[in-house]
């Protein structure tokens, strides 16, 4: 008989209880390891050599140990309140009674005289409320692991049916189970239903204890059943983790970068710097005419984006762009919103849900590709990035507004890297991603040769800079209206208490706001703008010669103060203050401040003195 059918659930519940009760990590893993060793021993005895399918796997247990990672069973749609109502109804608890109030309001209403750690979650509270109310009937068969999985299948099926039938099926399933488990088993079944066991051992540790390749395989396939089926014996290793088409791969992630790390990473190495696109991570899987799309979490978005050549918000526009020689592939990239009016990729803040963009609100879906994981039947994640990019480069033709390659540049010095970041920020991008050209693609890894660089990682100036908008620069090409602003500080007035009447150019900012905010600022300024004329310059504004002269300027008393954040103050010969900001971004319009309350030159120089002393 299969272990699943003979293994009593109370043993599993007792194991979980033991693991959760000890705070010592080694003990926790020790208990689990003993349990897994028993399983592996059973496997060895039952399937000595060359096991033929159908093979009994650890999956029925694994999906109970890691319910949040089980993608084979649809969701139950059951939360704490539904369970509370079920218990109240089935146990006949009267409305308003202490017990039913505790179950319904378990977060606030805790059972008396119990250690708060015991009742931190609903299962803990239910355990105490149900303790004297649930009794296992010795005449009824206890629940096996198989029975529990069947019970959970019933809940998931009922949720798919929906409506009154769902309620009826769910109640029936509970009614039949009622007397077959004791209260400890109920506690653990509740945690399984709510998909949070609170064992104090993470998913990775559990997978690693099961098999040394389990985590890597799960990261690639997101399939617990696949892990248990492929990895039967911990002594038998997988030589290469194969990627499967139409199964989501957990994407490779980027480590947080710091200036100190940069020198180390760059030592003798060139890096590839790519724009960090501001959208949602997405994988395109394609085989012949079939497409599938997966999110970062492994959820499928094919219904919205399109499974066939004439379907969805995206596939129907890009299906013809792919190289006919590419029979099958998996591309990794970012799904973004494309601003149809301005003809550029929008920032996420400008749109609501990228997945539902259908062109009606002025935005459409577009995909930016930056990696290739699988090509014509072969997993290519083990190739260095440069070789994967060589495959990617011929995979499709760009389709304006729909399908792009990520922009990248080779950088060899920190200065080049800062310059690229500066350019990205100036274009209102989120940041850049640095990638080691030799790096292989490691699913779900955050430390395998990719670094994300965002200006806020190096921001040391965030609250001190309230400066005046004195001019604007018109966008070139795509963005109409102003794309950048010239900011200034005030020359200290001759007499304290007077309003300032001289201003010095200090910095140009082109980032940190959405297109809508930019338009709003443009509208505020529009009635007062004067075109810049170098032969009739405003006397109140000092520039550094002709450098950084704006396309239009605005009188200080018609303008407003903005707060900017930045990484650093740098010496500069382009602005009248003699210094400017590194990575400046606009944070907010200070409508609560008057124009004459703007930062003064002496305040700026004092700040510069302080920051260079750091
Ligand atoms: P953040 O909150 O900074 O977006 P995160 O924690 O969600 O970061 P990270 O892995 O730290 O995710 O940052 C990398 C994310 O940046 C990727 O998951 C991906 O969605 C996105 N991204 C945008 N452009 C690129 C690119 N060119 N290469 C890799 N990832 C990119």
TrEMBL record:
It is found in: Nucleus. It catalyses: ATP + (deoxyribonucleotide)n-3'-hydroxyl + 5'-phospho-(deoxyribonucleotide)m = (deoxyribonucleotide)n+m + AMP + diphosphate. GO terms for molecular function: ATP binding; DNA binding; DNA ligase (ATP) activity; metal ion binding. It is an enzyme of class 6 (ligase). Residues 358-492 form the ATP-dependent DNA ligase family profile domain. Keywords: ATP-binding, DNA damage, DNA recombination, DNA repair, Ligase, Magnesium, Metal-binding, Nucleotide-binding, Nucleus, Repeat. Its EC number is 6.5.1.1. Its cofactor is Mg(2+). One of its GO terms (cellular component) is DNA-dependent protein kinase-DNA ligase 4 complex. Belongs to the ATP-dependent DNA ligase family. This is DNA ligase.
């Amino acid at each position: 008989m299969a272990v699943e059918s003979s293994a009593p659930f109370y043993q599993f519940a007792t194991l979980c209880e033991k693991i959760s009760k000890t705070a010592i990590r080694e003990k926790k893993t020790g208990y689990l390891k003993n349990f897994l060793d028993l399983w592996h021993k059973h496997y060895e005895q039952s399937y000595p050599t060359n096991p033929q399918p159908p093979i009994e796997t650890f999956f029925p247990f694994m999906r109970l140990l890691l319910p949040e990672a089980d993608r084979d069973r649809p969701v139950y749609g059951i939360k704490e309140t539904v369970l509370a109502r079920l218990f109240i109804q089935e146990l006949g608890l009267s409305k308003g009674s202490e017990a039913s109030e505790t179950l319904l309001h378990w977060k606030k209403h805790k059972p008396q005289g119990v250690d708060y750690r015991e009742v931190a979650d609903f299962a803990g509270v239910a355990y105490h409320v149900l303790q004297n109310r649930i009794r296992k009937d010795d005449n009824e068969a206890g629940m096996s692991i198989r029975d529990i999985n069947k019970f959970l299948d019933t809940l998931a099926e009922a949720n798919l049916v929906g409506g009154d039938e769902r309620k009826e099926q769910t109640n029936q399933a509970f009614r039949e189970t009622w007397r077959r488990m004791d209260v400890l088993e109920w506690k653990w079944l509740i945690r399984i239903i709510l998909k949070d066991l609170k064992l104090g051992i993470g998913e990775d540790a559990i997978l690693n204890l099961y098999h040394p390749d389990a985590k890597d395989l799960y990261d690639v396939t997101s399939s617990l059943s696949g892990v248990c089926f492929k990895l039967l014996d911990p002594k038998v290793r997988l030589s290469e983790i194969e990627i499967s088409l139409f199964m989501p791969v957990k994407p490779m992630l980027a480590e947080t970068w710091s200036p100190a790390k940069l020198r180390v990473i760059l030592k003798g190495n060139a890096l590839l710097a790519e724009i960090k696109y501001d959208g949602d991570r997405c994988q395109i899987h394609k085989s012949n005419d079939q497409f599938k799309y997966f999110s970062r979490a492994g959820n499928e978005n094919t219904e919205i984006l399109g499974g066939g050549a004439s379907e969805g918000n995206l596939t129907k526009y890009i299906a013809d762009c792919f190289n006919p020689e590419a029979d099958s592939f998996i591309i990794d990239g970012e799904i973004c919103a494309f601003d149809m009016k301005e003809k550029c990729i929008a920032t996420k803040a400008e749109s609501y849900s990228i997945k539902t963009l259908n062109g009606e609100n002025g935005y459409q879906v577009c995909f930016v590709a930056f990696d290739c994981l699988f090509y014509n039947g072969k997993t290519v994640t083990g190739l260095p990035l440069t070789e994967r990019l060589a495959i990617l480069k011929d995979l499709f033709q760009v389709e304006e507004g729909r399908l792009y390659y990520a922009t990248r540049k080779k950088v060899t010095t920190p200065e080049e890297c800062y310059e690229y970041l500066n350019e990205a920020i100036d274009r209102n991008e989120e940041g850049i991603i640095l990638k080691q050209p030799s790096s292989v693609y490691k699913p779900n890894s955050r430390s395998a040769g990719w670094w994300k660089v965002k200006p806020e990682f190096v921001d040391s100036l965030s609250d001190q800079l309230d400066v005046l908008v004195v001019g604007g620069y018109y966008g070139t090409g795509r963005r109409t209206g102003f794309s950048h602003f010239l900011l200034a500080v005030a020359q200290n007035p001759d007499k304290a208490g007077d309003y300032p009447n001289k201003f010095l150019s200090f910095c140009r900012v082109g980032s940190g706001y959405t297109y809508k905010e930019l338009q709003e600022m443009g509208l505020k300024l529009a009635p007062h703008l004067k075109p810049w004329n170098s032969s009739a310059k405003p006397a109140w504004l000092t520039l550094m010669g002709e450098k950084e002269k704006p396309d239009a300027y605005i009188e200080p008393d018609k303008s407003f103060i903005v707060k900017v954040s930045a990484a650093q103050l740098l010496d500069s010969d382009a602005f009248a203050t003699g210094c400017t900001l590194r990575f400046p971004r606009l944070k907010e319009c200070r409508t609560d401040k008057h124009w004459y309350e703007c930062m003064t030159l002496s305040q700026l120089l004092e700040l510069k003195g302080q920051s260079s002393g750091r």
